[in-house]
Amino acid sequence: RDPGLMKLLPIIVLVVFAFKGLFGWSSTYLMHWVGQSVIADLRYQLYRRIINLPLTFHDRTHSGILISRITNDVNLMQGAVSSAVTGIVKDTFSAIGLVFLIFYLDWKMAIIATVVLPVAFIPVWKIGRLLRKIATSSQEAIADLTVILKESLGGVRIVKGFSMEEYETEKFSNENLKFFDFNMKSVAVRAINHPLMEFLGGVGIAALLWYSGYAFSKGLTTPGTLSSFLASMMFLYEPVKRLSGVNNTIQQGAAAAIRVYDILDTPEEVKEAEGARPLPPIKESIEFSDTSFTYDGEKPVLDHINLRVKAGEILALVGGSGGGKTTIVSLIPRFYDVSGGRVLIDGTDVRDVFIRSLRDQIGVVTQEPVLFADTARNNIAYGQPEKPFEEIRQAAKRANALDFIEGLSEGFDTVIGEQGVLLSGGERQRLCIARAMLKDAPILILDEATSNLDSEAEKEVQKGLEALMAGRTTLVVAHRLSTVKNADRIVVVVDGRIVEEGTHEELMAMNGEYKKLHDLQFSAEKVD
Ligand code: ADP
Ligand code: MG
Questions:
Q1: CB neighbours of residue 177 within 10 Å
Q2: pLDDT of 524
Q3: CA distances from 80 to 127, 181, 238, 255 (A)
Q4: Using H for helix, E for strand and C for coil, what is the string for 156-200?
Q5: pLDDT digits (tens, 9 = 90+) for 415-437
Q6: Average pLDDT, stretch 282-303?
Q7: CA 315, CA 308: separation in Å to the nearest integer?
């Protein structure tokens, strides 16, 4: 009846809603900012931890599983964190406020109306626990799915070569259905929540109505109080319902969090020693002193190795497959730590120096060339992006790689594809040699660098290798004895032990293991 107020009210309503919208948007944005920041930080921590974990960890954990942890598990946690911060804060305050309100309106009715609330905690708790279990299985299923993806797409050439497309699709499909099943189970359990809460709310209202009939007749309450009471009740069940939903999301996130923290809590086995110091450039020798090693703590792989490589010497390791040659050379850059004895550089235990200063001194070329889906130039300059182009070009030239790189469509700027698939085996290997050349480390490890190549490509690569070895302390593991004849010294490794040692001529004269290996290859080459 107040015309002034009637003019003002619509404006107030507009302003209120405008502010509600503005604050609503801000609260959603800020809450999610918190959630997303937490998750982005976690993802970063997780990746950093994974890439820093020792090789022993990576040896036994499939990279597909790790990818799934960083993507799928962290995503599931994201839901929990975002809805936890938004939901819990807002809804808890709403619920507490409304509980106070109904007790203020009529405490007797309030007791009757909320008597079912504590009962609701039991199913909420049970549902949460069940969801956590389902979420674990579901995350395992998507991890398996990632493993299949990684293997079949990474090995797509072999898949096609063996006409296994159908087989891989079937495998994928099975795992996909498993994931689907777990997700539907989770949906089924989650969906119980809403009707259950509503039913419990109905029980409260029914109890209240039953009581209010009695209260009216005794004149204990008025219809006005009852209706505002009922309205508050309805409002109260909303946040309670949402909170139990939030609990479900949190439980699922917790399942993922357990898996993520499993990795974050994995200790880094190879650690910087206390009082570690930088390793000065090698002057005298690399020495294995009574060195033993086992991968699994049981089966000995290296058995009391004693070996001294003088600075500037080229030492070849030969022997049948599985003898332990790769393991021996892996101990120098501390890819693994010895189980017994020591590995010394100039008399200093490699465990007593900064890992970085140790690895900076070592160049490695392995059997499988490791290349990134990047340009030829960046692949050579990997780890040394600051090197000027002229030096990169020079390294390529000395690695016998310049001709083919300049023949690529865009020369040094050509992207060479995932794992360098757009190159031949010999070309890939020469890129890796150029990388080691650019690194210019005084110690060089060549592990079967030419074993995957045909003899034509091997000749090309060998030229690069010889340039690379010049003036460096080199350990070369080779399959073909023809490639080790020029070594200063050759050791024969069998079953984790050094059984013979000497120059090619000396070893041939010994008429032992080396001679056997030699004759075996010689007769094989003749048959070729
Ligand atoms: P080689 O290079 O002489 O062929 P390796 O050093 O690769 O021999 O292997 C020596 C032994 O250690 C083999 O019996 C092999 O099965 C085992 N081995 C190699 N690498 C691992 C690993 N990452 N985890 C467990 N065992 C391994
Ligand atoms: Mg090997």
A1: 11
A2: 65
A3: 16, 22, 19, 10
A4: HHHHHHCCCHHHHHHHHHHHHHHHHHHHHHHHHHHHHHHHHHHHH
A5: 988 777 888 888 998 999 999 99
A6: 93
A7: 9
**Paired tokens of 488:** 């200063």
Instruction: Please tell me the distance between residue 471's alpha carbon and the centre of ligand 2 in angstroms.
Output: 24
Tens of pLDDT, residues 297-331: 889 999 999 999 999 999 999 998 899 999 999 99
SS (H, E, C) 254-306: HHHHHHHHHHHCCCCCCCCCCCCECCCCCCCEEEEEEEEEECCCCCEEEEEEE
Residue located via tokens 């290798």 = 465
**59 CB near ligand 1 (under 6 Å):** yes
Cβ-in-10-Å burial (0-12, 13-18, 19+) of 278 comes to exposed
* 110/140: higher pLDDT: 140
Proximal ligand: closest to the CA of 54? 1
Nearest-atom number in ligand 1 for the CA of 496 is 10
DSSP secondary structure code for residue 489 in this structure: E
Give the pair of three-digit tokens for residue 371.
């290349």
Tally Cβ neighbours within 10 Å of residue 295. 15
Q: Do the strands 314-318 and 285-294 form a parallel or antiparallel pair, or are they unpaired? A: unpaired
60 pocket-lining for ligand 1 (C-beta < 6 Å): no
In the structure, what pLDDT confidence band is assigned to residue 262 with cuts at 50, 70 and 90?
very high
Q: What is the three-class DSSP state of 477?
A: strand
Task: Kindly state if the Cβ of 325 falls inside 6 Å of ligand 1.
Answer: yes
3 state DSSP class of 234: helix
Give every strand in the sheet of 362-365, ordered side by side. Answer: 362-365, 443-447, 473-477, 314-318, 489-494, 497-502
CA distances from 85 to 33, 92, 457 (A): 10, 11, 61
Strands 314-318, 489-494: pairing kind = parallel
Residue 173 has pLDDT above 60, yes or no: yes
Residue nearest to atom 6 of ligand 1 (CA): 324
82 within 8 A of 31, measured Cβ to Cβ: yes
* Bridge partners (DSSP) listed for residue 344: 287, 349
In Å, how far from its chain's centre is CA 292? 30
Q: Cβ-count burial of 170 within 10 angstroms (0-12 exposed, 13-18 middle, 19+ buried)?
A: exposed
pLDDT score for 50 = 94
